[in-house]
Amino acid sequence: MADHHEEEQLGKLYDAKAARRLIKYLAPYRRLVVIALSLTILLNLVRQLGPLLTKWAIDDYVAPAAQGALALNSAFDGVFWLALAYLGALSVTLAVGYFQDVLLNTIGQRVMYDLRAQIFGKLQSIEVSFYDNNPVGRLITRLTSDVDSLNELFTAGLVEVLGDFVLIAGALGMMFYFNWKLAIVSLLVVPLLWLATMWFRNGAREGFRQVRTKIARLNAFTQEHISGAPVVQLFNREEKALQQFSDINAAHKQANLDTIFYYAVFYPLVNLISAVGIAAIVWYGGGQVIQNAITIGTLVAFLQYTQRLWQPIQDISDKYNVFQAAVVASERVFRLLDTPDKIASPDTPQLPATGGRAVGRIEFRNVWFAYKNEDWVLKDVSFAVEPGESVAFVGATGSGKTTITNLLMRFYDIQRGEILLDGVDIRLWPLETLRENFAVVLQDVFLFSGDIASNVRLGKDSIDDARVEWAAREVRAAGFIEKLPEQYHTKVRERGAGFSVGQKQLISFARALAFDPRIMILDEATSSIDTETEQLIQQAIERVMADRTSLIIAHRLSTIQRVDKIIVLHKGEIREQGSHQQLLAQRGIYYKLYQLQYKEQPSEPLRAAGD
Amino acid sequence: MSKQVRFSSGRAWLFFYLNKYRWQLLSGSLFVLASVAFGVVLPRYVGHAIDDLKAGNVTYQKLTWSVLIIIGASVIGGVFLYFQRRTLINMSRYIEYDLRQDFYGHLQHLPLEFFQHQRTGDLMARATNDLGAVRQIVGPAIMYSEQTLFRVLIILPIMFRISVKLTVILLLTMPLVTLTVKYFGHQIHVRFEKIQEFFSEITARAQENLTGVRVVRAFAQERSERRAFARLNDEYVERNLDLVRLSAVFRPLMQFFIGLGFVAILLVGGRETAQGHMSLGEFAAFNLYLEQLIWPLIAMGYVTNLIQRGTASLKRMHEIMATAPSIADGSEADHALTEIKGKIEFRNLTYRYADGPPVLQDINLVIEPGQTVAFIGRTGAGKSTLMNMVPRLLDAAPDMVLIDDHPIRRIPLQVLRANIGYVPQETFLFSERLAENIAWGAPSANAEHIERAADLAGLADDVNEFPKRYDTILGERGITLSGGQKQRTAIARAVIRQPKILILDDSLSAVDTYTEEKILTRLRDVMRGRTSLIVAHRISTVKDADVICVLDHGRIVERGTHETLMQLGGQYADLYERQLLEEELAAS
Fold first, then answer.
1. Does domain B10-321 have CATH number 3.60.21.10?
2. Which residues are CB-contacts of B442 (< 8 A; sequence separation ≥ 6)?
3. Where exactly are the structural domains of chain B?
4. What part of A 585-604 touches B (C-beta under 8 Å)?
5. In sequence order, what are the residues at sequence separation of 6 or more whose Cβ sits closer than 8 angstroms to the Cβ of residue A486?
6. What DSSP state is assigned to residue B472?
7. What is the pLDDT of residue B79?
8. How many CB pairs under 8 A join A and B?
9. Over the range A449-476, which residues count as b (16 or more CB within 10 Å of their CB) and which as e?
10. Confidence band (pLDDT; 50, 70, 90) for B583?
11. How far is residue A384's CA from residue A65's CA, in Å, rounded to a whole number?
């Protein structure tokens, strides 16, 4: 029991902390919030008038204690005016209710906007390695569903709960004003209600967590099997997959059924407690009426007030569900927002004397790097690339070629040593300025949905149509693009479905060239491409390499032969450097790689990459 | 293949399930009725008590009786309320389970072309958000509607007995509530649909940004991405506020009309009581009855929203359900055919995607069982499309593709695919153990089979480097394989089935040539007597094939062995020479 209690305390602590932080998001809309809160208070105070008017009507006109004291005519006058007052209160409720609702939701939507923008912004600034460990689907949930459940909290939750509290306070005030003894008797059942609510909260919370876990599994499975649907079909796995799906689906259903139990018990329990409360009023209040301590009108008003009291209390527990969802969601959203950006611009950035547009000199000085712990991927790597030079990295898989380019763009930070661009440590460069100097063509070309032109310029509006077309022509992509019916406005679907690998590569070359980088990074595709396209691509490579520093993870001999320098990496170390001919003459690793891969493969381009 | 019945509309689909659970629905409804009936006891006895008090002939004993009856009725009503939720809401979870099962089951039978045109994010939105909205119809919406209905049916006659005049006046305000609900309900439906549409849009866009994170970063496009997202975010907020402006009128207006009821009781009921046409207890009870009607009347608005939203979602889900799995066993399927030998024939095969230009034209080719046939040609020549014809990932017109001299559609899909080992161009593995991924299409495979397949695919050495070897988990919760390891896993996955037909669609592209040669040699042994189709770009991969076909613009322009094609001096020889040229260049 003690443990349980402690857990409860912790939960409360956290709830409060998260709630406080959520409230901070309201700060920019302070004035609107104040207005909305005032309207809420006004609204719920006006709602108190009903029972009061009823009491007056009963005691003074409908069933006056002194029989026949008032003439019929004047009685109608009195009732009429009271009814009119009631109508007036209703009209105020209507108008205020409308404005309050619009206002609340506007605030809620604005806050959601801010949160989504903040989360999306965070996802743009957080280091790339974060994506290695966090599946995209999960991040999307943060951005969409989680934010939506926070919206529920703001609009349906917090303020309505506040309204409920005002309503409760108002009703209590009235009751104590009329007869404090009867008020206390009608409140005797509140501890029962409190206990019931506690029991419900604990049960529902655990149930709710279970449901969330199950739904995450369900979604992950669905997502994967939608993406892999053709593979499922090819291997006749439909039955098996459906079976697996059914298991996860059933677990989700069970978690929900478990949660329903708490709701099913809670609602009737609250009704019963409410009935006991009413019974207490009738019983004790009846006695008071007999003793002439209160009027019948007061008794009726008490009944109405308690009715008004129970509804909000039930609402609050009902809202607890919403609140709980929001807390869980906010917990996750805040955890994401609180994840520090491991890689960011320095506080006092520094630029070389020549400015932010790099001349293009790259130097690695005794660089050590590991993705994890001490599994060094690069060991004491040092080399320099002069402006305008082209360098090819050659080596087997895992030798660290791709890592070098990832480090240069600061997708990851190194553990020891220095990487310099134009003589300045890249960690001192403003991150954006640093990256603006690079353009990359990755093995796995990524196209965004939109059209071809938008894929070439990405978001950079300064690249106009003329430049897009120029870049496409320069890299020989124009050939196939201009044959398409809509040319540069041809729709590109998600991930570039519908374009061949070669076409996608040509588009990505055009993209790289259009950005006019100072340093070109090229992770050559291992040949998924036919010879014809291959030649186009070869020309494209030459074109984008011209006039700039180029780093190539090379798989093609034709490319390697044209570079100024070849760096041979082996198990994370630089083992040889030099031109193609020099390295062959050395008869070292490069020579061996070359021999191994060309001996019985006369027509094969050098595939230094292995796999 | 799918044995499911398809439904003409979303509604019919849903009714099917309501019918399936009709006993739950019926008993649940009875529980609702019972709990409502016992709820009426309270106002009645409170009224009696007040009348007694008014008359002044009250004793504590009498009061105590009333009080006990009130509590007793609440206990019994509460028990029914418990069962009401346990039956009706539970039923909605069962239906949710069934719908999800149906939806997923249907999805996995849809053809390749469907997935090429549908965004995953959009399908996911339907499988999650929309499904949730549909459940609301069969759960809370039904429960609250019934509650409303029964309360009105039970309470109204009681109210009539107390005062016809007052009840009639109240009945005049009720239709106002209904009309409000009806008008606003429709408008809300329209605006909500716009929001849902946009939700898919924003999800898909974000998904793309996150998947392409490296490109975004490398080109320093974070800021423009944020701007683009802000535009969508704006639009989303705007559409939500559109809905708010409407629903904000809806609720207060309803409450206003309900309040009119209390005004009527005060004015008319007050007069009637004063005149002695009804007792003070009845006057008080009348108030309590109306109080009992408030929640149902509000619930009606709530339920309308649920139903509007649910219907919109149901429509979206049904759109997918209505898409026929166009590739399935038809009436021509001959279930007596339980195995195939591996002869493949393309006869005047022409194929186009939707309204596009033909991607394959007049392909005529006969492949005998045991032959190895290679396809080479430039990107977009139609090689992958041709390969997709064999396991019927795509369907050409009838009689254009024949297996063992049967039109391909005569062979049950299950049989056809069970005999094909397919290694697609883009490798897709699942987040499961490596062993499971390899044995993916061969449920009966044991550890030994798995290791042999891995060895055959040149994967075994890599696996032995993994600490957990074949128990290594891949994907999101596990490790990421290199491109070459993925391809070789896919090859192992294909060969473990001991297929009659093996298809390698450019499946060695990320594997180094040394390993490639090893794999091809071993495959040659295993595939003796079986048919192999190999798509490649390198001469080295294809030159030992029995037949080499050169594809160009969807046609077979050359065919023969390496030697005959070299003699022919066409595209193949050209390709060879160009690759040779590169080699000479290299030697210089």
1. no
2. B449, B496, B497
3. 10-321, 344-419+499-587, 429-484
4. 596-598, 600-604
5. A451
6. P
7. 93
8. 466
9. bbebbbbbbbbbeebeeebbbbbbbbbb
10. low
11. 104
Among A72, A124, A189, A590, pick the best mutation site for testing chain B contact (most B Cβ within 10 A): A124
**How many whole angstroms separate alpha carbon A396 and alpha carbon A180?**
87
Q: Do B213 and A449 touch (CB under 8 A)?
A: no
Give the sign of the dihedral formed by CA A459, CA A462, CA A467, CA A469: positive
Q: Is any Cβ of chain B less than 8 angstroms from the Cβ of A318? A: no
Give chain A's length.
611
Nearest CA in chain B to A398: B482
Measured in angstroms, the CA of B365 and the nearest CA of chain A are apart by 22
Using CA coordinates, name the residue in chain B closest to A67. B274
- Contacts B223 to A, Cβ<8 Å: 432, 459
Helix, strand, coil shares, percent, chain B, to 5: 65, 10, 25
B344-419+499-587: CATH class: alpha beta
What's the whole-number mean pLDDT along residues B34-50?
86
Chain A segment 357-396 residues within 8 A of B by beta carbon are: none
Helix (H) or strand (E) holding A46: helix A30-46
| Tokens standing for residue A589 | 């690793």
> Residues B435-493: pLDDT tens digits?
888 888 777 878 888 888 888 888 887 888 887 788 887 866 556 777 778 888 888 88
CA neighbor of A146 nearest in space, from A195, A102, A112, A173: A112
Over A91-119, what HEC string results? Answer: HHHHHHHHHHHHHHHHHHHHHHHHHHHHH
The Cα–Cα gap between A432 and A334 comes to 25
Contacts of B221 in chain A (CB under 8 A): 458-460
Mean pLDDT for A167-181 is 86
Average pLDDT of chain A is 78
Contacts of residue A531 in chain B, CB cutoff 8 Å?
Answer: 378, 537, 575, 578-579
Give the orientation angle of helix B280-321 with respect to helix B164-211, to 10 degrees.
30
